[in-house]
User: Which sequence fits this backbone?
């Protein structure tokens, strides 16, 4: 187990380093020289003084080898200095961290909602595959995949905010303002979780140890509760983490539509405004978190399913 | 001792497919099955696979697979008519008064729960024990079934137990509810003789000490001769013959029973002398295999194994589960590289042919084929690299090996799920023959089959060996198979070859203590010498 944890943690660190290096390189691949851009933004007129370019490059450390620049940047980054935003001239960290907390709450709410809806649906469908209930659940949840967020969100706003006036249209103030964005974000996970739970339950129910448990005197319900449902849900832990990681960066559309000040919105604005330090900071934080969550899910999955450990050993 | 009456009586039981409108239809799977097992009786139910033995047991528990239903007849346990009992009555009966011991114990445990969690279920349901009381009872049960360290066993997950230990744990689980009647469905067919005998002795002790009634389902006639009082013979869903064990085994009335008995009697054939003048075709010198990382030498599956195989020879490799038999097979074929020692082949073929001249016949025929491919596609695969063969030649070759293993060519268009175990095992042999091997390694090639099918497969192997002058390595835990087939025997114990001897000498005077234990266990322990009837029951 210790070896497993060490290995996975090493993979995690490697993934963060590699992806952060890619992010670090972004400015080098954007057209135009950033130094000239900075000077041009301060000085009137098109002519740029070459000595000013040299001086600024020197003071920013841009003449050092790439590796040195990268590790200086990475060191600064993880000590909290993510640089200044081009647009607001404020430290990136001060913008990223609040946005991150908003997105984390939004994504958590969406996934809790998705789990609360898809667990019972998937279990009902999986226990009686082919039944009317199964067909109805499968049809509805599969239809959800086909509904894009930019369509669902306005429809929900139209119904709940404009017609029924029970929920606010947009913003991020109290719990009621979180309902519609969380629900919109939950729709596709609901669909995927339901079919995963259904498949897991069908597999678990077909296992030969289930009739063996009945032969020990467990009632149908007890056998399902003790031997089918827990085993059927094991694969869900990984799926849950993958979606958590995916939604951290994938909530852009929902955040933009509902004016939620989260990471998606932040990254969207950073890209639109070519605010490279802000985009870099946001992406590295999201990547680190996503990789961390998936690694954590591996540990949980390994703990839940003893045989995974056996096959690795 | 059991105060409740647990006399099990089946009367005219018929099981059929259920139709959507809750009726039943078609040819019944079980018809007119009547039997009676009294407390303290050891009744054996024998028959080839697919004859309905397991279905009979599941009918007793009222746990038929979905789609099947009892269409007529009754099952009674004491005063309780199980076909009419309420679900509540059935739940307290299952695992309580009527226990069941399953075959293939590993698949019958929930892989995510410990042995303790399993044992606590019947203890809570049928003995009302919880917490530490249940735990100490569970430890007691494990000790009773022969766990050397119950404290460790109770914490184990099923996959951490060996096959034999899992079967013991399964036995403890079946006995936890203090059943008065036990349905034992092939509880030992996956075990070697030593373990088989231990499990059966354990059940027999329960029978003698507290009057446990046992319905022992098996296709292993030798164990029936050793333990049972009465025998029921089942064929295609009906009981064709029944009687006291001595009478039925010595004077079988039906042809089917005679066939079964003949198949079980894998008496030593009058085998020719081992081919002493032939040259060695395979030489293993100090072969070892360690699993684990390079720095830390892990568990040694094989240690310093030195063996030779002559051309045209049949070498048996005997050993208990976990003794390294399969690792040895894989090392010889080249599927696993040996960590130490050398394996040299002196074959007639060279180049790529040399690589395929040693072929392996796998253990479980159903998992040796891709379930989605037809047999034709599976058989075409080994020929794919042979660019020198035209499509017609490939088809001819496949047709030829199918004929050689006595399979109908029409089977080529079937998928594994549509074939019987015996047919598939023939197909695995056919697949191995396609590449014209000189050495065929049969890794427990018949242990998943019933005695009748096993016999036909063994005879097929013997014929192929004669006709093609093959060298065979027969890996088995079954002493009878080895005695029937082999010229020489090698015994593996914890990865070491502890004894290599000619078959005749080996069975007459095994030298190593482990070999002695194996040979001794293969002779049943019954005092009345009923074993000998197997040798006089002429077909």
Assistant:
């Amino acid at each position: 187990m210790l070896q497993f944890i060490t290995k996975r943690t090493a993979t995690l660190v490697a993934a963060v380093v590699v992806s952060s290096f890619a992010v670090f390189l972004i400015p080098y691949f954007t057209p135009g020289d950033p130094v000239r851009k900075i000077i041009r933004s301060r000085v009137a007129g098109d002519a740029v003084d070459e000595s000013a370019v040299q001086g600024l490059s020197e003071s920013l450390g841009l003449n050092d080898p790439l590796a040195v620049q990268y590790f200086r940047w990475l060191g600064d980054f993880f000590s909290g200095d993510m640089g200044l935003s081009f647009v607001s001239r404020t430290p990136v960290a001060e913008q990223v961290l609040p946005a991150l907390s908003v997105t984390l709450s939004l994504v958590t709410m969406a996934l809790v909602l998705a789990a609360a809806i898809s667990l019972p649906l998937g279990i009902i469908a999986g226990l009686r595959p082919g039944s009317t209930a199964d067909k109805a659940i499968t049809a509805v949840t599969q239809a959800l995949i086909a509904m894009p967020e930019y369509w669902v969100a306005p429809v929900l706003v139209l119904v709940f905010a404009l017609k029924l006036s029970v929920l606010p249209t947009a913003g991020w103030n109290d719990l009621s303002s979180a309902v519609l964005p969380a629900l919109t974000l939950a729709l596709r996970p609901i669909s995927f979780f339901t079919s995963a739970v259904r498949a897991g339950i069908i597999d678990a129910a077909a296992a030969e140890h289930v009739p063996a448990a009945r032969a020990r005197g467990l009632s149908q319900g007890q056998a399902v509760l003790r031997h089918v449902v827990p085993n059927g849900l094991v694969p869900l832990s990984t799926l849950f983490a993958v979606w958590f990681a995916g939604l951290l960066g994938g909530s852009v559309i929902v955040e933009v539509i509902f004016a939620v000040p989260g990471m998606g919105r932040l990254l969207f604005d950073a890209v639109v405004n070519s605010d490279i330090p802000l985009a870099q900071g946001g992406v590295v934080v999201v990547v680190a978190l996503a990789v961390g969550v998936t690694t954590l899910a591996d540990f949980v999955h390994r703990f839940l399913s003893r045989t995974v450990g056996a096959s690795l050993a | 001792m059991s105060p409740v009456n647990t006399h099990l009586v089946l009367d005219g039981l018929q099981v059929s497919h259920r139709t959507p409108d809750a009726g039943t239809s078609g040819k019944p799977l079980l018809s007119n099955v009547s039997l009676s097992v009294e407390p303290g009786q050891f009744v054996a139910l024998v028959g080839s696979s697919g004859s309905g033995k397991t279905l009979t047991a599941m009918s007793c528990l009222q746990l038929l697979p979905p789609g099947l239903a009892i269409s007529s007849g009754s099952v009674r346990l004491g005063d309780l008519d199980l076909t009419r009992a309420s679900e509540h009555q059935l739940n307290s009966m299952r695992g309580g008064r009527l226990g069941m011991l399953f075959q293939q114990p590993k698949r019958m445990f929930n892989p995510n729960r410990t042995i303790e969690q399993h044992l606590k279920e019947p203890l809570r349901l049928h003995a009302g024990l919880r917490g530490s009381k249940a735990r100490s009872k569970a430890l007691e049960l494990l000790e009773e079934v022969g766990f050397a360290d119950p404290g460790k066993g109770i914490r184990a997950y099923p996959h951490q137990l060996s096959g034999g230990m899992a079967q013991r744990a399964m036995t403890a689980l079946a006995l936890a509810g203090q059943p008065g009647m036990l349905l034992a469905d092939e509880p030992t067919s996956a075990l070697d003789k030593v373990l088989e005998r231990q499990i059966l002795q354990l059940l027999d002790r329960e029978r003698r000490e507290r009057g446990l009634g046992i319905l022992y389902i098996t296709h292993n006639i030798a164990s029936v001769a050793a333990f049972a009082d009465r025998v029921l013979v089942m064929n295609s869903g009906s009981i064709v013959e029944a009687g006291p064990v001595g009478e039925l085994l010595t004077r079988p009335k039906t042809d089917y029973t005679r066939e079964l008995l003949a198949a079980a009697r894998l008496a030593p054939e009058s085998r020719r002398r081992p081919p002493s003048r032939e040259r060695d075709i395979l030489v293993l010198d100090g072969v070892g295999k360690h699993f684990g990382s390079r720095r830390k030498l892990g568990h040694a599956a094989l240690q310093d194994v030195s063996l030779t195989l002559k051309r045209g020879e049949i070498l048996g490799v005997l050993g208990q589960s976990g003794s390294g038999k399969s690792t040895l097979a894989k090392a010889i074929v080249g599927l696993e590289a040996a960590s130490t020692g050398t394996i040299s082949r002196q074959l007639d073929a060279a180049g790529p042919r040399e690589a395929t001249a040693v072929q392996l016949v796998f253990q479980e025929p159903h998992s040796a084929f891709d379930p989605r491919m037809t047999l034709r596609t599976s058989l075409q695969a080994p020929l794919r690299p042979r660019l020198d063969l035209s499509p017609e030649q490939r088809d001819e070759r496949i047709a030829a090996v199918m004929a050689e293993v006595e399979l109908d060519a029409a089977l080529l268009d079937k998928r594994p799920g549509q074939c019987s175990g015996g047919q598939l095992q023939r197909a695995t042999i056919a697949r191995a023959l396609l590449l014209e091997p000189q050495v065929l390694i049969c890794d427990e090639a018949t242990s998943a089959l019933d005695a009748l099918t096993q016999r036909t497969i063994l005879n097929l192997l013997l014929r192929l060996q004669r006709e093609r002058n093959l060298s065979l390595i027969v890996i088995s835990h079954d002493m009878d198979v080895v005695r029937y087939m082999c010229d020489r025997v090698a015994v593996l114990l914890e990865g070491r070859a502890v004894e290599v001897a000619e078959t005749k000498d080996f069975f007459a005077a095994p030298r190593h203590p482990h070999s002695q234990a194996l040979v001794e266990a293969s002779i049943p322990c019954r005092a009345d010498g009923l074993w000998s009837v197997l040798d006089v029951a002429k077909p």
